[in-house]
Inverse folding.
């Protein structure tokens, strides 16, 4: 528990040093780690491993760099001024190549810094014997409402072979159906949040009745957190598997370059849009596209639902109009299928001119891998006490 407090406090002190103009670059942030460790006012800083302190300094400076880049780009929305981290359940501590040690059987993880956290048994379905110890570049300990997790950052390039199937597909995402492809196939929207909303509201009411600072409030907060985790993990698992199936069965995938952040400003649809996880689906498509060598092209969504794919004329429709009825060429069809065909046509045109554009996080610190905990294997799964 104290280990995560140290990590959050270290990031906070690093930001204070930047505000007071004591730190002006990443290298100075590294040097400031030693200053903090030698300062008697911060005895907790010396307990952390030196490379763990540097990792927290990197995290703080990454937020500062993002703020400066947004200011230079003159974006119209908020620039993202770094905020002070508070003590929270979703906290983490990151080690580099020192301060930790794996046992020979890869079942126990020991932390050897001055914090003396001790040895912990690892549960999970990932076989660490497949990788050499020198391939593990970082170890991150993450706390969730249902326990503690370890994330290993491994230097490994993943490539999968795939046979050509001579299929190109365009995807139009929506709320009635998760997506409609250019062949007219539809995938139902699972709506995981809507299905678990009744229990979440019940747990929220229980939490509001508890007294602040009491042990019952802590238990109620953990129950509510585990309910949200269940919804989030079900959604991410479903989107991941769906994206992999789409990539494996096509040679080119065209999607819309949607600005989900702007779309959720519609308060009537914000909950449904967030529950659909369109952007997470796009991230997994790009990730698996890099692994299987499939082009994933994001096109401008402008007029994809309004234009007729048959004649190209514009047919204005509201969101409630689900049928595309073109008065110019008399084509009648599904609105989403018409949009998916337009998306595929735009991607092919873009491919001719610019050879496509794909943004992928497959190399380096992939946020998809860092955000997903390793699930417990069925053989070792057991009920754990709430943290």
């Amino acid at each position: 528990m104290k280990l995560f407090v140290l990590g959050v406090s270290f990031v906070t002190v690093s930001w204070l040093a930047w505000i007071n103009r004591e730190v002006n670059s990443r290298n100075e942030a590294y040097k400031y780690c030693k200053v903090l460790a030698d300062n008697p006012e911060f005895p907790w800083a010396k307990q952390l491993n030196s490379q763990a302190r540097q990792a927290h300094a990197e995290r703080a400076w990454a937020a500062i760099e993002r703020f400066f880049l947004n200011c230079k780009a003159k974006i119209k929305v908020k620039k993202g001024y770094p905020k002070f981290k508070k003590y929270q359940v979703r906290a983490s501590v990151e080690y580099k190549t020192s301060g930790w040690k794996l046992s020979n059987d890869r079942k126990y993880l020991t932390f050897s810094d001055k914090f003396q956290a001790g040895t912990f048994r690892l549960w999970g379905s990932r076989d660490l014997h497949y990788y050499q110890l020198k391939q593990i570049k970082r170890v991150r300990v993450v706390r969730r409402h249902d326990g503690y997790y370890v994330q290993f950052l491994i230097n490994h390039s993943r490539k999968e072979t795939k046979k050509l199937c001579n299929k190109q597909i365009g995807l139009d995402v929506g709320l009635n159906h998760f997506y409609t492809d250019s062949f007219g196939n539809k995938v139902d929207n699972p709506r995981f949040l809507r299905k678990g909303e009744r229990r979440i509201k019940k747990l929220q009411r229980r939490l509001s009745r508890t007294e602040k600072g009491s042990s019952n409030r802590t238990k109620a907060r953990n129950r509510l957190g585990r309910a949200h985790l269940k919804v989030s993990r079900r959604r991410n698992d479903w989107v991941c598997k769906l994206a992999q199936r789409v990539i494996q069965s096509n040679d080119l995938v065209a999607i819309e370059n949607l600005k989900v952040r702007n779309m959720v400003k519609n308060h009537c649809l914000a909950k449904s849009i967030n529950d659909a996880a369109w952007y997470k689906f796009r991230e997994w498509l790009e990730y698996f596209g890099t692994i299987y060598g499939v082009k994933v092209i994001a096109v401008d969504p402008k007029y994809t639902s309004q234009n007729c794919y048959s004649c190209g004329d514009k047919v204005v429709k509201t969101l409630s109009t689900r049928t595309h009825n073109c008065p110019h060429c008399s084509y009648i069809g599904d609105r989403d299928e018409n949009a998916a065909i337009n998306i595929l046509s735009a991607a092919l045109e873009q491919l001719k001119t610019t050879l496509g554009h794909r943004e992928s996080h497959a190399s380096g610190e992939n946020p998809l891998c860092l955000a997903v905990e390793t699930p417990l294997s069925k053989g070792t799964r057991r009920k754990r006490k709430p943290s």
